[in-house]
Amino acid sequence: MFTGIVQEAGVVERIQPADKSIELTVRMALCGRGLKVGSSLAINGCCLTAVKLASRGKFRLAQFDLLKETWRRTNLQFAKPGSLVNLERPLGAGGEFGGHFVTGHVDGLGTISRWEKAGLDHVLDITAPPDVMRYLVFKGSVAVDGISLTVAGVSRRSFRIWIIPHTCAVTALRQRKVGDAVNLEADLLGKYVEKFLAARK
Question: Is 14 in contact with 25 (CB distance < 8 Å)?
Answer without folding.
Answer: yes
